[in-house]
Amino acid sequence: MRRRAAAVSIAAAAIAMALPAERAWPAGAAYQVDTAEVSEPGACKVESWISSAGNRDLVAAVSPACVVNVGRPVEASAQFTRTRADGEWGTGVAPKLKTNLVPSAIGRFGVAVSANAVVDLLTGDTTAWQVVVPATLRLSEVARINLNAGYQRDIAAAHHYFTYGAGVDLRTPDNVWTVTAEMFGQAGAIDEDTPRSVVRPRGQVGLRWRPIDDFNIDLIYGRNITGENSNWVTLATVVRFKVGP
């Protein structure tokens, strides 16, 4: 039960990083390192992805999100995740709120804050929650650096983690192709039943094709993504649309 709850935590958390009491998957996107950017109110998107590991672990997720105006633009999302870890299946949802505090600009950091919880839909238990501060530095119109720092409470495993991440995005001037490389992880005390790979750095590199503004597809290769010390391949899509006037 503990391992299944963990798998839901991280995979669904992702936002958060918490799979088996030890696994992790950021909430709301196949990429783990978040940006400080928040779109205008009325902007919506649906991100979907499926990730397969060499050890036969699996993550399938869909994450609808919209930006609403509550005195300031706030992105509200919910990541629904189905996972298979060590042969056990789990289902979870990770609601998330994110708002920008300092807009980014070329040569200047932008800062945001996000918070999410993870709920095991099979038991109804809240298995984890997390607060993250993403920062984005735009180096030019086609390059940016993203940095993340946060705190995660893994309720299922009774663990506390410091979460971190760093990523680089490089795109073509026409925004059709983007290459993303990122490193992320979680640091904290672990017990003797938790593998060391849980607190080792994790990484991904991906290629995005965006033929039109409202749609893109990503192919991503990763290592130790959920703390299981395996190789991962992810196929992801994003569909964007506007609601309201």
Secondary-structure blueprint:
Blueprint: H1 2-13, E1 15-16, E2 25-26, E3 43-53, E4 58-69, E5 73-85, E6 88-102, E7 109-120, E8 126-138, E9 143-154, E10 159-171, E11 177-187, E12 202-212, E13 215-223, E14 231-242
Antiparallel strand pairs: 1-2, 3-4, 3-14, 4-5, 5-6, 6-7, 7-8, 8-9, 9-10, 10-11, 11-12, 12-13, 13-14
Describe the structure.
The protein contains one helix and 14 strands; from the N terminus they run H-E-E-E-E-E-E-E-E-E-E-E-E-E-E. The protein is globular. Strands 3-4-5-6-7-8-9-10-11-12-13-14 form a twelve-stranded antiparallel beta barrel. Strands 1-2 form a two-stranded antiparallel ribbon. Residues 1-26 have low confidence and may be disordered. It has a single domain (2-242), classed as Porin. The longest helix is centred in the N-terminal third of the chain and has 12 residues, at 2-13. By secondary structure, the protein is mainly β. The N and C termini lie far apart (47 Å).
* Number of helices, where a helix is a run of at least 4 consecutive DSSP H or I residues: 1
* Secondary structure: number of strands: 14
Shape: globular
**Secondary structure: helix percent:** under 10%
Distance between the termini: 47 Å
